[in-house]
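pinned: reference chain
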Amino acid sequence: MQNKISVIVPVYNVEDFIERCIESIIMQDYTDIEVILVDDGSTDNSGDMCDMYAKKDTRIRVIHKKNGGLSSARNLALDQMTGDYIFFVDSDDYIYPGTLRELISACMDYDADISCCGYISGNKSYYCNNKIEVIDNFQAAKRMFICDGIDANAVCKLYKKHLFQNIRYPLCVYEVVPVTYKVLLKAQKVVNTYKVGYYIEKRAGSITRSSFGVNNMLYIKMAGDEYEIIKNEYPSLGDYAYTFYLNALVSMRECAEDDNKCKKTINFRQINNLFLKYYPDIKKSKLLVNRKKIIAVLIKYRLYKGFKSIYYWIINELSALGWVLFLPASSLYLAGLHLCIQSTDGRLPL
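pinned: its structure tokens
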């Protein structure tokens, strides 16, 4: 049985990260891999560094192309890959030792079409409780829509190649939104290892960390379009897709709190109007996580910045004293809500 993994890495102006990324892949103890590095028109030394690695390791293939964005790079690699499985890595990220073996073993052991791992970003870990779970495609899609163990990221997942037959990423930002749920629904079985396998680099200038603008509105539109498709084609998933949409509203509205200049823009007014329109649904949602509800309340009552400042002030003061403390911001927000945002009957407006 062939179990070759095609590791697809879009590359664009990441000369400070690409070596770490490639090394993490070629040093895996699972060696039946091809590494496709797609240089998406880099203007720094990234492309040359990829070529250097290709000369040293025959498993590495480099494709140089004009800049077309992350989606076009992934799609080109999908068209040319020769593996039986697909694993995406972003070029500023890296994977932990043993990740590929762990994921392909999970697919084999449980006869699954997709296996997932947890990840670390900054000093926080996500989906890393080390408890293996095997679910069907509908359960996997539900989990993705409410970010419960699975999210919409292309990374952190090993896919059988047939899942991408007739599926490609749209040429836009937030390209995973209309794709990941389709791939999950094509699978018969999904296994989640809940083991840390991937590191996501927090980097200024990335799409999710760029200034507030048209991309934020696009994300909301794509989440809304996804909901419309799901409620018509998969009615039992409708509430979950709607939760994904509400989550997108809160997340994109929260982005505006960190960008003082954006509040005079048309995009902000559009997003804020949608946020206020759907705020009642956000409050009463049974599937949306409490953290997002708390953030929504703080934004609605213009307390977000104040509580965020207090949180970081406390952390900095304790750090100065040499204390090591992890205090979730949502805990502080919730405490503040009890003090400051009570409705007339004394209950939290959640």
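why pinned: The longest strand covers residues 189-199. Residues 338-350 have pLDDT under 50 and may be disordered.
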